[in-house]
Amino acid sequence: MKRFLYSPSVLAGVLLLGSLLSAQQAAVSTSAAAVVPRLVNFSGKAIDQGKALSGVTGITFSIYSDESGGSPLWMETQNVQVDSRGNYSAQLGATKSDGLPLELFASGEARWLGVRVNGGEEQARVLLLSVPYALKAADSQTLGGLPASAFMLAGTVAPGNSPSSAMSPAENATAAISGTGTTDFLPLWTNSTGTLGNSVLFQSGSGNTAKIGINTTTPAATLDVNGGENVHGILNMTATGTATATAGKNSQPQDFSASVFNKTTATAVTQKFQWQAEPVGNDTATASGAMSLLYATGTAAPAETGLKINSKGLLTFAAGQTFPGTGKGTVTSVGLSAPTTDFTVSGSPVTGAGTLALKWTTAPTSADTANAIVKRDGAGAFQGGRISGNGVGDFGVTGQTDTVVGVGGFANSGYGMQASSNTNLGLFGESNSSYGIEGYSSGSYGIVGISGYTAGIVGISDGSGSTTTGYGPDGVVGVTSGTFGTGVVAISTTANGTGFLGVNQAGGQAGFFDGSVDVAGALSKSSGTFKIDHPQDPANKYLYHSFVESPDMMNIYNGDVTLDANGLATVTLPSYFESLNQDFRYQLTAIGGPGPNLHIATKVQNNTFKIGGGQPGMEVSWQVTGVRHDSWANAHRVQVEVEKPAGEKGLYIHPELFGAPQEKSIASAHHPEISRVAATSAAKRIK
């Protein structure tokens, strides 16, 4: 995006000048409310480099007398709210206390609106149609720009009375303006009682040749600031015009001047540098821009130095730039050395001109040749004996086989790598301190294990020690660092399959979750408890409680209530109670005394029920149960007694409890690899 910057001094001067003029206008304005609002609605689309913007965006509006070129008659910058499609609406003049100036449209001449988004290129100007010219209607309240009260006749004076006696008190209230000032200084209210004095703004000349000075009475430019400026916003150095197919337009330059004394001429000579944005590739599909450094001495016009920065930040240096150092640089010779076991070197060093030569002692070859650098043949293959990679603290990879491929590499089609063995490991990875085998992909799976018979991937840990926590080592570890990633994903694509299986053949835990668990389907279990740190000895004991079981999908609600003076009480249940439950059952218990006549006076209606028959002031403990009848429960009712499927008849969830061997386990029958893994020893190191 191309930006245009204003000079800091221009912006500071305009802001200060605008505040002083506003103060003067406020002092002489009348209290009459304006009938015609000085605002004009405008809607547009915020686009930057062909893309629609959204959110709060800075937009500069300028009004011109011409369709192209020329200086703006009026301008303002607003922060407008842009929707997701880039559309926005704004009221021109909203940032000005008096809105749009009436004189913009008083002449009846055409006016054009230009729009810049975020300080970028100005969009094609839009002709303002008749509605904005309604601002001219404000003249209907004036005569020659003066209010009607300015043309009222003086009141009739009765004989013998002084003229002042016929004037109203309002006509006698004349502002007491006082103070002193200096010619060509813009005045400033020095207090709130009407006293004027000099401001820091000084004007010399008039009309198009007028110059404004801030803290100086000898301004050398249209705006001359003697002092520092703070700018809280974008400084735009606007383009000198709008580009056409035949010519691009530079930005206004930013000048930096130095003064140097010339001994020969015995005068001070100005040294001027300029930064200037310039078009590149005008009227092409790759049109862009660059920032150039210009230079001139004295009164000469600044010219290109050759130093440029393109739109991607790349530098083009001026002719004669040398690296390193100055002149021809500091490098005086270049030498070449190489291991004598592999190369012979000649022509080294080169001090002025010459040729460095490097010759192989043993030429590279694709054959199995001692001391030769290995290269691939025309088919991309090479021959060799055993190839080993060993990293201390990093990956170690060894491929070994008697008959098939021990380690495969890249293939245009088929497998990128294959490891196979008739009797033992086809692929073995070993590392002393890091990963034994790692698979990485930037667009798909890192490692895929496929088996047509048994497990696709098996992770076995045979470590005799433990980790720093006292547990482990682990057979398989899944870790994710993504925002929504999952450490381990287990998926089954068959109706009778299992997505995840955890087995502990030694009687310990088959699964452990350190955190919340969310089950989206039904949960089946042999038993269930809660387990917490024991409240009376949390550091050394656990406390267990069994779950309450029921053949129904039952919910339990309970509480205490106090009966009123009539021995009645109304119990209010949750607002979702009847939406969630049906088939209600009730229990009532009197507290502090017998309650032989306690009863349910009214069953659950509108999520409440009533208790009656008790003594006034009696406290009653109540319990209500309900059976779920929400959508999920209705679709997944618990079948209390179910025949085992054919594949599980004669098998047991816990065969040891019925005197049956482990082979009669349903888990082992469904997953025979459980027994195989238990009998598999860990891989031994390949030496």
Description of the molecule:
By secondary structure, the chain is mainly β. It is built from 7 helices and 33 strands. The protein has helices at 8-28, 103-106, 169-172, 577-580, 631-635, 666-670, 673-679; strands spanning 40-45, 47-48, 51-52, 55-64, 74-82, 87-92, 112-117, 126-127, 142-143, 146-147, 178-179, 185-189, 195-204, 211-214, 223-225, 254-262, 267-280, 288-297, 303-310, 315-316, 343-346, 357-360, 388-389, 397-398, 428-429, 529-533, 542-546, 554-562, 569-572, 581-591, 599-605, 608-612, 619-628. Strands 11, 12, 13, 14 and 15 form a 5-stranded mixed beta sheet that branches. The protein has a 5-stranded antiparallel beta sheet with strand order 16-17-18-19-20, with no helix packed on it. Strands 5-4-7-8 form a 4-stranded antiparallel beta sheet, with no helix packed on it. A hairpin with a 7-residue loop joins strand 17 and strand 18 (288-297). The longest helix has 21 residues, at 8-28. It is flat. The two termini are 62 Å apart. The model is unreliable at 1-34, 154-174 and 681-687 (pLDDT under 50).
